[in-house]
Amino acid sequence: MNEQAELFSRYLALLGVPRREPGLDALREIVRVHLTRIPFENVSKLHYRKHRGLRSLPDLGLFLDGIERFHFGGTCYSTNYYLYQLLENLGYEIRLCGADMSSPDVHMVSIVSMEGREFLVDVGYAAPFLEPLPRDLATDYVVELGRDRYVLKPRDAAGRSRLEMYRDGALRHGYLAKPAPRRISDFEQVIADSYRDEATFMNALLLARFFPDRSVVIHNLTVVESRGTTSAIRTLSNREELARAIQESFGIPEDLVLDTVKDLGQLRDIWT
């Protein structure tokens, strides 16, 4: 077995799923398990920039090391790209695609073609997309948890899929996923830009972990625990308390978190 094959076998072992023939049920299992076992978080991004000078994606080995040693996950670029690679390795007909937010291609997703249908796979949006999202829609496809509501619209004339995120009934965020296949090198500059001093994830914290019926999200000094249609919100008093809360809910070591966040300036609101 070559090194790359060993890494993908290790990846599957971390997820706790067996290698199976491509199929919709197998895809659903991988997406669900990936989202529940590997969190969205940018602590690792800050940590690797500070201690390794990283300004690009961690390689797959480092990505998996972080999961094993520190209970890391990643932001959209690492989690969505490495899941794309895993699914491609497993034999899925899949393409990596760009998605526009306030600027072009600042998000990436995967589109899987199967059984004459297409599904959007996104484990990197800090959202409860526990299943592949169908793109062949006649009406809106809605995912709700706590105070958040996500609406995937039917494809437009150009084959693009618009995702809207509402919080407490107000539109707060979203993206436009484009169906053209892309290469990871196409995102090289936007990934490098995401490490700049003024970049969003260099000035804020966001961690999200999802379960079949609930979620825990830490955004700066706020902890939001959601179940069904209700959310409980509590405010932390300082960064020491924040580090403890992250260890309790995500398993990332408290001392590592504190070392990472102590140098951050005023924490920025991700959703603005």
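^ that was protein a. below is b, sequence first then the tokens
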Amino acid sequence: MPAPSHAWVLAGATATGKSAAAQLLAEQLGCAVLSADAMLVYRGMDIGTAKPAAAERGAVPYFGLDLVTPAEAFSAGLWLADARRALHAAAAAPGRRLIVAGGTGLYIKALTEGLDSAGSDPARRAHWQALFEREGLAALQRAVEALAPGALADVADPANPRRLIRALEHLEACGHLPQSWKTAAAPAAITALRLPREQLHARIVRRVRAMFRQGLPDEVRRLREIYPVWSATAAQAIGYAEVCALLDGTLTMRDTLEKIATRTRQLAKRQETWFRHQAAVHWIDIADDDPAERVAERVLASWRHHGPTHLQLT
């Protein structure tokens, strides 16, 4: 059965309530949820990423969570592979549609528009480079056509071996070339949540304090015992880098809390800026005291009015 070509997408900055709304709507509509959050892919990094707990998820199938350990590197290409798994799982359940929820614009763009860098794999790149060195340009061109007949015509410079190698990497990861290589497609339309700046900042402070009450330092301590060396991305994750410094004695508790809140505010600003400039967003302006049920109702109304988002990953 072919994977669906559309999904409901809910985006926005961190701490705007995307996860709670997505969970409620998944329960109501019988959907699976694909997390589009670059930090939720790490197993064991739960409290500091505000990852939905298993008890909160209930019977809703989730994808995009717990894909690698903090010691392992991760990429948009690996996330796309799990996104493809989510799409096919949704297709296997009659009537089920996928909800994509998160604030990592790179992932949402990869899913809705295709991404030139998706699927970058050093081992596969070395394989294709070796083929070029052994057999020349024509061998790369034949490989492109073998993976996707007709795709060579969509490569802007088919005499450029670097471009052909990137095409081969992308074809192996996604099964097709990025849409941006073919047409200047308009950005995909998505629904996103937005809080007034002061209310969002206050919510961030409350979230940081709640993470410490829930035991974030203990979580970091356990993870460091299991994984003495972390990947560069995991090591710089908001909350985890600061708590590591706290445990090492280079930050005070007060400075740790302030630094986490500051970095989270900066992240939220970058996310909102990205969605304003990189996507066709239908904004839903909410208030800090809006109940999750009310937010979910407004999201569903937006989805029904504007329709689902077309996906390039099949």
